[in-house]
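Hi F.,

I've been meaning to write this up properly since the lab meeting, where we talked about keeping a consistent format for the predictions we share between groups. The idea is simple: the sequence comes first, exactly as it goes in, then the structure tokens exactly as they come out, then a line or two of notes. No screenshots and no reformatting. I'm using this chain as the first example so we have something concrete to point to.
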Amino acid sequence: MLELRHLKTLLALYESGSLVAAAERLHVTQSALSHQIKDLEDKISASLFVRKSRPLRLTTAGYKLLHLAQDVVPQVKAVERELGRLATGETGRLHIAIECHSCYQWLMPTLNQYRQHWPDVELDLASGFNFAPLPALCRADLDLVVTADPEPLDGISYIPLFRYESLLALPKEHPLTKKRFIEPQDLASETLIIYPVEQGRLDIFKQFLDLAGVEPKAIRTSELTLMMIQLIASGRGVCALPNWALTEYLEKAYITAKPLGKDGVWSTLYLAVRDDQLNAPYMQDFILTAKDTCVETLQGITLLK
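Output, unedited:
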């Protein structure tokens, strides 16, 4: 059976041009190298070199094995280097899914800064609305999930990122703007604009409307926060969004916003990570970078330890 050492020997012989130079390159004696060549020839039942040729000249069988060595040996060396860097935490894979459309506001600056520090980490980003990201995380199809809905799963840790309040965004002239806070019954006559996800995953339902047994008059979906704001500003409906996602639009007076209930509706955003990756240096640095970026870019949040 062919072994990697056989391919390395053949490649060294071809590239160095002599038995002496190849032995020095492989850090073996000429005698040991000759035995390796004889062993390889015995395994394939064919000669590798034209005997007594100067410089060394490969046979047809030798060239076939050389082409294999030229393909395989560099790939093995590259993987060995990559494994070494993985062992020291210099590189890795970070495939991320998010369950929050508005999270792009802080996630993109986080990724931009992170790439500067970890250029060799393989980054990928996907929306978690079209598939189940937490099971994908368990299967190692993903490496990190941004979620506000932690589920107890074996081998998964949830790092609290920050706490935020959901506010009801309203047109500036809407009658509900006169209220100090919104009550569930107020939405029974409203068109509620939501992201295209299951209602049970949205704070406005699971922490507010469902508890009071109230349904909005109508539901309209939109994938883009900006489109939601435009619909609200034009009087097409109302929408519950994180306070930090509304800051820009409130400052420009496009819309207004009110708390949901007397005490407000509060949630925590988490980073879900597999336990076997949690302490990897590149993962720990991403978590710290995300927290720093949130503090710098978002208003109205409470950073959690």
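Notes:
The longest strand covers residues 156-170.
Residues 51 and 57 are 8 Å apart (CA to CA).

If this format works for you, I'll send the rest the same way.

G.
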